[in-house]
Structure of ABC transporter:
Amino acid sequence: MTSIASESVSTILCTSKQTRFDIKTADLRELDIDGLHITVTAGNKKTSGAKGKAKARSVGVEILANAKLRLKAGQRYALVGRNGSGKSTFLKAIAEKLIPGIPEETRISILQQTNAQIPDTDHFSSDAASLQDRTEPQAPERHGNVLEEVIEKATARSDVEQEIRALSKGINEADPMGPVRALRTIRHHRNQKRLFLLDKDARLRSGARGMAARKALTAFEKTTAESEALIGQPAENISAETLKNETNEAIDMLADLQLQVEPTTVAEIESKAKKILAGLGFSEDYMAKPVSSLSGGWRMRTSLATALLQETDILILDEPTNFLDLLGIIWLQKYLKSLEDADDAPTLVVVSHDRDFITLCTDLLILKDKQLTYFHGDLPTYEASQSERKLWLTKMKEAQDKQKAHIQQSIANNLKAGKANDDQNKLRQAKSRQKKLDDRWGLQVSAKGGRFKLNRDVAGYHLTARDEIDIPQDERPASFVVPEPSELRFPGPLISVEKATFRYPTKRKNKSETGAPASPAALQDVNLSVHMGDRVGILGLNGAGKSTLVKLLVDADGTKPSSGTVTTHPRLKLGYYSQHAVERLQALVGRGDDASLTALSLLTREVGGALDEGEVRGLLGALGLPGRLASDVPLTKLSGGQLVRCELARLLWRCPHCLVLDEVTTHLDYETVTAMREALRDWAGAVVLVSHDRWFMRGVVEGLMDDGDDEERDVDDGDGDEEESSRRRTVYRMRGGKLTELENGTTQFAESIEKRVAKMLG
């Protein structure tokens, strides 16, 4: 979904059909909503009433139009849709309960993408009105270590503990007004929360129920105003009796709150939190670190742990595998599957480009053409069924067209023969057949596939039985074309690494210090050569040395081996995609005049005249940024996947001989990942790939064609494909700074990780 610039806050407008009756949902893990419309508009567009909402839809970006939202309790859904289709906004609308029909008591947990390009929910709209410039009161943010923060945010004890601390502090003060101030502050904070819910309820309802809700809101606004006034009441205006009563009330409230925090429950929650954090790669030392000291990737893992620890009815995970290594991905996959054994297993909605990861899902939820489509099964089965259905419909239409053409030809022949010989039988036959075409064509088969009968299938006669067979049109395939590399003129390895060892510089406390111990080797005796056309895959867990090796290969930040050599071809053009490329691009365009840059203007500036505008547009279009998307939409409003395409365009315009790609699939939708997999598998240049996406690695590096392939393609099929037969496809494992070739490639590495995960979960 196109993001919104910070200076123009967006609005998510949600409407749906609602019943007038007060129906309580039997299971809060289920959603059943009809007539769902979701539109995103610019925040500066004022809307009021039905006309305002209709106008907002006409000027905004419509994500869903008259869709049906159906979630069944305990099912695991993979939300599928292209970059820019609005998946993240749709999930945010569910999590924020902006959609009318989602019960307020439903517990919904969400993990959003890191730096996700999602519109801020400034207000929402329903069948009644819109809520603007209101946010739910939040408790002050605490700054503890990772374990404390995860437990704090994941449990309801956060508010309880803060109230306990506030009351304890007030009661222990020497000032007799301390307990009263603490009590009144807590009361007002609770009133603010209640006011927020009443305000939302009033705007979600219409008619008599809406009027009653608005009356309740008005009455409680006075209560909230009074509680706020009491906080600032001067001490001299408080009577001795009031002081005594409220002090006793504060003491009683403190005792009640302390009973809610049971030590046994706390220990169980802490134990569960530690298991989740360990599964996501946190060591004991990392759990004790302040959250503020963590990098973006580790903070995302902290947020993921929080979402998993929460007691929830609906769990939403938007790209949870970003920044996880394969150990974390497989652990998360197994952990989410294990939740089905619980009686109150949450309903799961997952967005992920990792095809192997989403095999944990039982159903697909497809967001396409502003509609939601459901499929019980996995992605390969869905794609196969769609292909089979299209083939069947095509054959049916061809047979129907052939039969119709035959009847039309027989009518023409009968008319010609009847008129020539004055044969009334021929003319009557021609008239009967023409009537069949005009009045009864398409009625041969009922909706159930049997012979059509007018007295039984009359509904079909009036509605759809005579419709033309509608063959679904193929969606425009995701575009990803890699330009062919320029000629090298003379042979030789593109990159050659011989016995390379790398150690990070040791920091000394003072200049006079000598004999300081050397830092451990990040890389040890690495040997690697990359020739034109080679495919090299590097697998390994976080901290194994993959990023260090990549930096050594591309000479990033002046990284040189401590010993050994790294040499490159004299004419080598290298393209390097960093795993932090999107964040760096966002930082580049997020400051100064660059905030208005588009993909076209940025790339035009960088090519410096080497390509004309038409060639730049052609390159961007080949990577999935066509037309106005490239020239009119600022980079600050592009989604994460679109920024990946822009960053790749900055690398590919030089027609490199070798691409070094470090986690390039992050932020991309599965269609683009599929297109990239196809493009890179047979590209003439060399590819060095670092990725935790097993399906992507198997395709690009190992050359596997489809999910069901167990062997590589037969490259010697009789045509003598010399280029393919000379292509080297090798998968390495990086562990402890050492590079080891894997005979069975990705499968061998994944199996070893699965064994580790089994021990962790066991």
Q: What stands out?
A: The chain has a mean pLDDT of 79. The chain has 24 helices and 20 strands.
